[in-house]
Amino acid sequence: MNNFAFNKKNFILLAIGMVIIIIGFILMSGSGSNEKAFNPEIFSATRIKLAPLVCLAGFLFVIVAIMYKPKSRIEKKEDSNE
Question: Are 62 and 34 in contact (CB under 8 A)?
């Protein structure tokens, strides 16, 4: 009998959440300004609005994946008998 805290579905949801977080960090990355030249691209809407929201969504998705508990087989049988 396997009594693991997570099952296969939890790990799949965690992986999806991590991919979303990585996409958010990739959207935030890029070249910055240096002493010789100013790069106005550091203030783009993608970097300061979209990317943090994508990361936040990813972190919330990971929390949901951790908290997710599917119905056990016993609970499913009890629900179908009622």
Answer: no
The model carries a pTM of 0.78
Using DSSP's 3-state secondary structure scheme, residue 23 falls into helix
**Phi/psi at 4 (nearest 5 deg)?**
-85, 155
**Is residue 6 included in any domain, yes or no?**
no
Cα(69)–Cα(75) distance, integer angstroms: 12
Contact 24, 54 (CB under 8 A): yes
Q: Are 54 and 19 in contact (CB under 8 A)?
A: no
How many domains are there within the chain? 1
- Let me know if residue 55 belongs to a domain: yes
For the segment 60-69, the average pLDDT, to the nearest whole number, is: 94
